[in-house]
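Review this:
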Amino acid sequence: MSPAELVKRLLAEQDLKYRDFHASLLPNIDKKSIIGVRVPTMRKIAKEFASSAMPAELDKFLDKLPHKYFEENQVHLFVVERIKDAEQCLRRIEQFLPYIDNWAVCDGKSPKALLKDESRFYAKICEWLKSTKPYTVRFGVNMLMAFFLDDRFDKNQLKLVAAIDEKIFDDAGSSGATRSSKKETQPTDRYYVQMVIAWYMATALAKQWDATFPYIKGRKLSPWIHNKTIQKACESYRITDAQKKILRGLKLELH
């Protein structure tokens, strides 16, 4: 399968109703760039492309950036996460990170090859968290959430994530996402970074309660992230009813 054949294959799987629905979840990208292909189908196509394309054709696709379609970007990372060589996988991720411009391409990726050199992987995550590019930051938080909240957890990781909003996005306005009616339909990149921080913190509460709870009790997060963390944690089946009661009692009144 060549890159051109890949695009034809994606176009053949187009679902216009799904395209319209998915476009509503991605208000910051051009609807014309969305074909409308469901994730399981894209993963299947990516697997076929990775296994059938000639190495030169595969490299051509991975090197030709930016891609035209949202689905090409999805397939790009689905292909990269299948790379088994840690060095090559990392190189391809770093090459692609500057081109991520939405949460959907950023999320749900699992480049397990990077765990072959865990210390380097973690060092790279720390670099990504300090980036001024919002979706590079979001990708870094996603990697911490996916791979470093269990046996690889260290409480310093909480500090790194909690500091992101204050240190990197200070110039975007008040702490916490203040969203006007216009921003409700056109969410800012800052909002998507704040959301992943809340998502991470809520997951950390479920997996590492003792280390994470002081960030809620001590109000160490910006007010909007604080409340969103509590909301997402209380929606989780992994948080006990007793813990949810405590969390709800710590919710802030925002004005």
Observations:
- The chain has 16 helices and no strands.
- The CA atoms of residues 13 and 205 lie 39 Å apart.
- The two ends are 55 Å apart (CA to CA).
